[in-house]
């Protein structure tokens, strides 16, 4: 029996990815993985190169928030590859999304749906990847909501280059295209810096690598400079250029001036690049990105630094209005680091609307702030429990933002389930029909499950509370 099982496993592995129906799922966890290219062959569907060569099918599934999906793809031996996207879980001609299909002439690049395409939540999509030769594909995938898609989330830049891409950015509605020397805006990214000494400043976009449609790569960038506040930006100049390096400069600015920079790729997104500036104040940390997304339990925050100088710690700060922030956690920094460092923080049971920022503190007590990101949970089902603690009358109320069946459980500190039942809730305030006055004194946890969402709250049952009421 063991011999037959050993022979069977390679056969299954060999066939995976050879057809649309056996597409290989790509985990969207940010980890780069190697995949064996299938022996199936076929022709191009969106790129101009001809001939039959290996075809491998992959799939990815969006999360409940339908965040943008970003893939980093590298093929074998720098040979051209084609990435064709199909919607509806099928690979028929009508489901081909040509605007979201990419041609990687050098065999590597970043892929994301076209800026005009809207992903659906909890939906599976197919990618048909055609390579010139056999071998292995390296793919790393992640959900992402670019924090610097607007002015409030502008990424701080300094004299050292910061790596970024605009693949998941949408066109800005805050600034006019003419303020970036553009006719239209498709994938705007915002950055910021502070002028070091009175004089002109310059921004350098370097190491540009763009992968859009066939023969539609490396068309350049449009750049706009702004001062003021994010609610009232004032344009002070713009520039448009192309090539492997794009440079733009301001006029003379006073020392200490806060400058916002908006950049937009010409004719589409999916460009990676590095960004730096001159005559700007040094940064204690070089933040590659600060982003976050919502889960059923809370909001998950993630940030990566490229370099840290005397960085003592990060305070994670939250606000419900984007103005007044409070610290909800602290994570030690790396002090001094020349390599990438990734940090994570989970905010459990957050408010429906949450603004987040990082406050970085160095060994001298000086602080700097990151860009601000917004996470809105209005589209997620939510259950809130309302009761006095210790419970006084044995009654528990549930407030929901939906109508439907909720599984309610009460568990004691020993892990024993003392109550479990499905309760139909109307949107709004609901009263549990069962009175819990007869529960033994002690500490309990009440849990509500609705689809993949979970809400919990602890409470104390005390007989003395009832005696005081009687």
Tell me the layout of helices and strands:
Layout (H helix, E strand, L loop, with lengths): L1 H14 L8 E2 L3 E8 L4 E2 L10 E9 L6 E7 L6 E6 L9 E9 L3 E4 L12 E8 L4 E9 L10 E2 L5 E4 L22 E7 L7 E9 L10 E9 L2 E10 L4 E4 L8 E8 L5 E8 L6 E10 L3 E22 L6 E12 L3 E8 L4 E10 L4 E3 L3 E4 L6 E4 L10 E4 L3 E9 L4 E9 L2 E4 L10 E9 L2 E9 L1 H7 L1
Please explain how this structure is put together.
The protein is built from 2 helices and 33 strands. It is mainly beta and 470 residues long. It is globular and about 75 Å long.
The mean pLDDT is: 85
Q: Measured on Cα atoms, how large is the radius of gyration?
A: 26 Å
* Spatial shape: globular
The number of helical segments is 2
How does the major sheet shape up? 7 strands, antiparallel
Strand content: over 45%
User: CA-to-CA gap between the ends?
Assistant: 71 Å
Which bin fits the share of residues in helices? under 10%
Catalogue the unreliable spans.
1-14, 466-470
Q: How many DSSP E strands?
A: 33
Structural class: mainly beta
Salient structural properties:
mainly beta; 6-stranded mixed β-sheet; 2 helices; 33 strands; 51% strand; disordered N terminus; disordered C terminus
Q: How is this structure best summarized?
A:
The protein is 4% helix and 51% strand. The protein has helices at residues 2-15, 463-469; strands spanning 24-25, 29-36, 41-42, 53-61, 68-74, 81-86, 96-104, 108-111, 124-131, 136-144, 155-156, 162-165, 188-194, 202-210, 221-229, 232-241, 246-249, 258-265, 271-278, 285-294, 298-319, 326-337, 341-348, 353-362, 367-369, 373-376, 383-386, 397-400, 404-412, 417-425, 428-431, 442-450, 453-461.
């Amino acid at each position: 029996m063991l011999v037959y099982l050993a022979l069977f496993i390679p056969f299954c592995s060999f066939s995976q990815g050879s057809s649309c129906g056996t597409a290989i799922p790509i985990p969207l966890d940010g980890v780069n993985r190697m995949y064996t290219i299938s022996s199936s062959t076929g022709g191009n569907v969106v790129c101009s190169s001809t001939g039959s060569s290996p075809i491998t099918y992959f799939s990815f599934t969006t999360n409940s928030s339908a965040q943008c999906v970003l893939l980093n793809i590298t093929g074998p031996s720098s040979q051209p590859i084609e990435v064709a996207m199909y919607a509806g879980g099928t690979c028929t001609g009508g489901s081909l999304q040509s605007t979201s299909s990419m041609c990687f002439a050098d065999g590597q690049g970043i892929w994301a749906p076209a800026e005009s395409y809207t992903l659906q939540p909890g939906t599976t999509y197919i990618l048909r990847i055609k390579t010139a030769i056999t071998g292995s594909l390296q793919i790393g995938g992640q959900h992402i909501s670019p924090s610097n898609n607007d002015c409030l989330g502008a990424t701080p830049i300094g004299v050292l280059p910061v790596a970024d891409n605009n693949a998941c950015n949408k066109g800005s509605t805050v600034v006019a295209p003419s303020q970036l020397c553009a006719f239209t805006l498709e994938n705007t990214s915002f950055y910021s810096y502070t002028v070091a000494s009175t004089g002109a400043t310059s921004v350098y976009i370097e190491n540009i690598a763009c992968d859009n449609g066939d023969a539609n790569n490396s068309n350049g960038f449009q750049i706009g400079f702004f001062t003021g506040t994010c609610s009232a930006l004032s344009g002070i100049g713009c520039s448009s250029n192309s090539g492997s390096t794009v440079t733009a400069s301001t006029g003379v600015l006073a020392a200490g001036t806060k400058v916002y920079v908006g950049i937009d790729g010409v004719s589409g997104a999916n460009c990676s690049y590095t960004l730096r500036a001159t005559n700007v104040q040094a940064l204690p940390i070089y933040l590659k990105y600060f982003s976050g997304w919502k889960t059923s339990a809370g909001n998950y925050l993630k940030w990566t630094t490229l370099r840290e100088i005397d960085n003592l710690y990060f305070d994670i700060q939250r606000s419900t209005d984007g103005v007044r922030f409070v610290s909800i956690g602290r994570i030690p920094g790396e002090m001094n680091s020349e390599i990438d460092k990734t940090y994570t923080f989970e905010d459990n049971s957050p408010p429906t609307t949450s603004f987040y920022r990082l406050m970085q503190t160095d060994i001298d007590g000086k602080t700097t702030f990151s860009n601000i990101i917004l996470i809105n949970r209005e589209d997620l089902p939510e259950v809130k429990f309302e009761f006095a603690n210790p419970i006084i009358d044995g009654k528990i109320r549930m407030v929901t933002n939906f109508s439907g069946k909720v599984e309610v459980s009460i568990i004691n500190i020993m892990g024993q389930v003392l109550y479990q039942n499905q309760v139909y809730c109307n949107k709004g305030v609901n009263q549990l029909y069962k009175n819990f006055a007869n529960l033994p004194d002690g500490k309990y946890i009440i849990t509500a499950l609705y689809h993949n969402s979970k809400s919990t709250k602890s409470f104390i049952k005390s007989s003395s509370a009832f005696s005081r009421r009687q």
